[in-house]
């Protein structure tokens, strides 16, 4: 990434403002010694702004950057002395959003161990599989998951919240140096259609990844940022990395509740919110705050943005939605600004600076504008492969996202869905997202999902699952007639099923396998 662009962006976002020379020198020294890992970012923030509030939990407890760093270092020393954690080990983290999770991630990577971020929605059986496949040495977990960890192998040492505090309190003094082997963060893929896979996240090697994001999303140094997206998910973890780099004050709640989130945005005067689309949708289900919080950015990612949601939200909270399309494997591919979303509410936007995007056919050839093809992405934060050793297809340095999409004549990307989600009905290809977006525009519909189910005549037929707003009703035939008016006949759902809520995982993605159980 070219230096003038980096300098200009960092200046524009307030990261190159003058400071006390000794603190600036200490800040740069921390980055030189520890790099741009989460540990390095926390250390540089503590060096530059030691007394600034780093984290506010939902209980109101606050930790400064220096206090957060001290607690993470004490935990690291105690994990090494009491649990024998060393470079190359893997430490599982089964925690919701709170400061203890951050401390444990930093503590593991300080020692050169890999931090495995475990989805809080996993069953006991799935958790046991993850522990075995990821070869966990230690599992740090919240107390609420005590019953779920009972069946883990005896060799996996467990650290609950009381043990976490005991380790921090009982740590012996000592010095910590950068490990010979860098600790990696391993994120588990969402696993909506199968068992989650571990994906190794790379460590940034400079300001490039940060600049790519904050050039397009106007986050500033020392903002107050609420991270509602789960930190165990790629998007929540990215929000944490960006927040540390900006020396932001981070507001965390263990569970998402729309009314509590709305109130926290006002109470803490948050300038930014990181969320997944279903959270934004549910914020609209509660009365808007008065006065409105000073939000400049509501950054969403993790699943498709339903049609019409962005304009509806911006009509209430202002033009603040930024939609990032990416994945655990490619980090980011494109970002849609509020102006993009006003123009085309379902767009994924354009690739940010330093990112290459290509729409290719099955033979690897570029397809014309407007034609659907496979989405390939290249940037400096492509994942390093699955922990199983499996990899994704690459072409000319670009990684296959597994998604299908198209780019219009204005250069905007539209994602049509997963390649393996495409429905073939009577020989015609149907993308569920197109039908879902149309159904979501019905005023009675709160959320919609469309899947393909077996059909003896057409091979597959479409089934639409609709969650309605309270007190609303719809007739299935009226739904079909509505779709028939706007789309081709093969896009009309033969089955229309009304549900109270769509089944979702902890990151807000619809669990299609649960919908298919409706058909036995």
Would you give an account of this structure?
Residues 434-509 form the AMP-binding enzyme C-terminal domain. This protein has 520 residues and is α/β, with parallel strands linked by helices. It folds into 3 domains: 3-201, 3-Layer(aba) Sandwich (Rossmann fold), CATH 3.40.50.12780; 207-419, Rossmann fold (3-Layer(aba) Sandwich), CATH 3.40.50; 422-518, GMP Synthetase, Chain A, domain 3, CATH 3.30.300. Helix content is 32%, strand content 22%. Helix 2 (21-34) packs antiparallel against helix 3. The mean pLDDT is 92.
Mean pLDDT equals 92
- DSSP helical segment count: 16
How much helix, percentage-wise, in residues? 25-40%
CATH architecture name of the largest domain = 3-Layer(aba) Sandwich
Structural class label: alpha/beta
State the shape. Answer: globular
The biggest beta sheet is recorded as: 8 strands, mixed
For the largest sheet, list the strands in their spatial order: 2-1-10-9-11-12-13-14
In the CATH hierarchy, what is the superfamily of the largest domain? ANL, N-terminal domain
Terminal-residue CA separation: 52 Å
**Unreliable runs:** none
What name does the CATH topology of the largest domain carry? Rossmann fold
CATH class of the largest domain: Alpha Beta
Keywords: Ligase
InterPro entries: AMP-bd_C (IPR025110), AMP-bd_C_sf (IPR045851), AMP-binding_CS (IPR020845), AMP-dep_synth/lig_dom (IPR000873), ANL_N_sf (IPR042099)
Protein name: Acyl-CoA synthetase (AMP-forming)/AMP-acid ligase II
Organism: Micromonospora coxensis
């Amino acid at each position: 990434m070219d230096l003038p662009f980096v300098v200009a962006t960092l200046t524009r976002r307030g990261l190159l403002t003058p400071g006390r020379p000794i603190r600036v020198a200490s800040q740069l020294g921390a980055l030189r010694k520890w790099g741009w890992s989460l540990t390095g970012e926390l250390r540089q923030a503590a060096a530059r702004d030691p007394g600034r509030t780093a984290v506010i939990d939902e209980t109101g407890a606050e930790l400064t950057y220096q206090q957060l760093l001290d607690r993470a270092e004490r935990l690291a020393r105690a994990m090494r002395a009491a649990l024998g954690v060393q470079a190359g080990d893997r430490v599982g983290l089964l925690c919701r959003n709170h400061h203890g999770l951050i401390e444990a991630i930093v503590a593991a990577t300080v020692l050169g161990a890999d931090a495995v971020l475990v989805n809080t929605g996993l069953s006991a059986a799935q958790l046991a599989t993850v522990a075995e496949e990821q070869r966990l040495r230690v599992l740090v977990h919240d107390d609420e998951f005590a019953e779920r960890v009972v069946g883990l192998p005896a060799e996996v040492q467990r650290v609950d919240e009381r043990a976490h505090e005991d380790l921090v309190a009982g740590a012996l003094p000592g010095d910590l140096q950068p490990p010979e082997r860098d600790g990696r963060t391993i994120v588990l893929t969402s696993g909506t259609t199968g068992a989650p896979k571990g994906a190794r996240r790379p460590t940034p090697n400079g300001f490039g990844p940060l600049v790519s994001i904050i050039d397009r999303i106007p986050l500033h140094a020392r903002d107050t940022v609420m991270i509602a997206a789960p930190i165990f998910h790629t998007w929540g973890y990215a929000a944490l990395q960006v927040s540390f780099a900006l020396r932001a004050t981070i507001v965390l709640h263990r569970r998402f509740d729309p009314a509590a989130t709305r109130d926290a945005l006002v109470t803490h005067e948050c300038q930014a919110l990181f969320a997944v689309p279903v959270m934004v949708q549910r914020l609209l289900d509660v009365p808007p705050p008065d006065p409105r919080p000073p939000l400049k950015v509501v950054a969403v990612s993790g699943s498709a943005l339903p049609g019409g949601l962005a304009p509806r939200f911006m009509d209430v909270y202002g033009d603040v939605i930024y939609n990032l399309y990416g994945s655990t494997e490619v980090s980011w591919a494109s970002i849609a600004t509020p102006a993009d979303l006003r123009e085309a509410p379902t767009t994924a936007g354009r690739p940010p600076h330093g990112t290459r995007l290509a729409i290719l056919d099955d033979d690897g050839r570029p397809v014309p504008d407007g034609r659907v093809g496979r989405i390939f992405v290249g940037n400096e934060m492509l994942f390093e492969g699955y922990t199983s050793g499996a990899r994704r297809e690459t072409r000319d340095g670009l990684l296959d996202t597994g998604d299908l999409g198209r780019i219009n004549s204005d250069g905007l990307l539209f994602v049509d869905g997963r390649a393996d989600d495409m429905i073939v009905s009577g020989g015609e290809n149907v993308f569920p997202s197109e039908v879902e977006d149309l159904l979501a525009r019905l005023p009675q519909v709160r959320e919609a999902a469309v899947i393909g189910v077996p059909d003896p005549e057409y091979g597959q037929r479409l089934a639409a699952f609709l969650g309605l707003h309270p007190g609303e009703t719809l007739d299935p035939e009226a739904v079909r007639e509505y779709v028939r008016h706007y789309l081709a006949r093969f896009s009309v759902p033969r089955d229309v099923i009304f549900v109270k809520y769509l089944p979702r995982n902890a990151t807000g993605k619809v669990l299609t396998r649960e919908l298919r159980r409706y058909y036995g």
